[in-house]
Amino acid sequence: MKKVTPQEAKALQDQGWTYVDVRSEPEFTSGHPAGAVNVPLLHAGPGGMSPNPDFLAVMLGNFPKDAKLVLGCMAGKRSANAGALLESNGYGSLADQAAGWGGPGGKGWCGSGLPEGSGAPAGKSYADLSKKKA
Known about the structure:
The chain has 134 residues and is α/β, with parallel strands linked by helices. The chain has a single domain (2-43, 50-112, 123-129), classed as Oxidized Rhodanese, domain 1. Helices cover 29% and strands 23% of the residues. The strands form three sheets. The chain has a five-stranded parallel β-sheet with strand order 1-8-7-2-4. It is globular, with a radius of gyration of 13 Å. The protein starts with a strand and ends in a 5-residue tail after the last helix. The mean pLDDT is 93.
């Protein structure tokens, strides 16, 4: 899986790649790259973050294994973990937007001047995507 900057991730989106934001639903709703979809690797709960047991099933149900996907999170750890899981399950066209949304030193998508979205756009929220599982 190749690592890309926010600007490179946007260029991939412009070429038809799908940006999958693997942050929790509240994080996604508070702000995300424009055009991104949300499939959390972890869920936020009262005791902190816990694994999303449906992550892989939701990905398989919505994206074929030959889909071109950019993965992003807050600062790079979750997207790298999601990418490793997807690669081990046959996904081959993956890019890790390693600076994430917030990124270290403000170098993530949020501070880059790239287009942003907020809320949970129709068809792009986890609630919508989780209706279709493999």
